[in-house]
Amino acid sequence: MTTMAPDTGAQDTAGYEAVFDAAVAAEERIEPRDWMPDAYRATLVRQIAQHAHSEIIGMQPEANWITRAPSLRRKAILMAKVQDEAGHGLYLYSAAETLGTGRDELLDKLHSGRQKYSSIFNYPTLTWADVGAIGWLVDGAAITNQVPLCRCSYGPYARAMVRICKEESFHQRQGYELLLALSRGTEAQHAMAQDAVNRWWWPSLMMFGPPDAESSHSAQSMAWKIKRHSNDELRQRFVDICVPQAASLGLTLPDPDLRWNEERGQHDFGAIDWTEFQEVLRGNGPCNDQRIGQRRRAHEEGAWVREAAAAYAAKHGKATA
Ligand code: BYC
């Protein structure tokens, strides 16, 4: 979209709004210096921040297994994956910065519980198979949700998502491959893989957010072309993708109501426990305290790195000047 003059006052916004609406309707990208409604900016900051926080908190459950990976190869892959998640966090915090919101402010809101991160990361990683289940299901759900975000109306977020989705795709495959190795292994390994899938399946379905009827932001976000599909549409797509993959893995999805519906051309699936989802969001999931406690500690322990980087930048800046 062509850059417009900054907002100069309430009396002028109708004209700007018409240009903004036309740009969104024409599938043009909104860029940082374009005029945008305050609510559009706030919605983007909320979603991008929640997404960025999810990426960095999401490093914890898997990092838990780096020291116990069963081989050098598995360890190297897992370390690369966890580092990728940190990188995703950085792209996303940078995207939020283009909306005028600093990283410090967002991290402060995360640490004080004023901003959310994905419910999925409040579950524990009990066995090595959980690393596979996270890759296959959690990264799989993330891709299903995030590929449409590559067409998000806000340019910096959409562009960040392109690279993130490529990396998530590698993550999903490594998880699938890990689970396949376990599933084809000994009886105990197969049982471990099945147990992990049993525990991660329902929380993965919750990642897509509340049902459409209870999704407070979906209608407006879809009108602004931030979201391209509803929560339920994406959840359904994910279920339909996973069913044949589970069969190839030789694993069962823990849902007795899961069956193909010829008429709909989609799978029917059982009821999701939305009470559990709400409890996790309220901070009462199995690992909420552990995750946020660890995040705050990491931030405090990293203070010297931020100070050193700032001192270096100041010195370097002076030298250049
Ligand atoms: N967990 O109106 P709704 C990853 C909140 S990271 C917690 O439908 P919206 C990965 C929602 O924020 C995966 N909260 O909202 C990393 C809202 O509350 P507020 C993260 C949730 O925004 C490491 C309220 O419920 N991906 O892939 O239209 C390793 C009402 O919901 C959740 C993203 O963040 C939840 N699951 O739609 C491996 C993708 N769901 O803000 C993998 C980008 C909903 O009013 N985000 N809420 O207090 C999105 O696409 C959307 O924000 C959502 C929710 C679909 C998640």
Automatic annotation (TrEMBL):
This is Phenylacetate-CoA oxygenase subunit PaaA. PANTHER family: 1,2-PHENYLACETYL-COA EPOXIDASE, SUBUNIT A, PHENYLACETIC ACID DEGRADATION PROTEIN PAA. The lineage of its organism: Bacteria, Bacillati, Actinomycetota, Actinomycetes, Kitasatosporales. It comes from the Bacteria. It comes from Streptomyces hiroshimensis. The gene is paaA. InterPro entries: Aromatic_CoA_ox/epox, Ferritin-like, Ferritin-like_SF, PaaA, PaaA_PaaC.
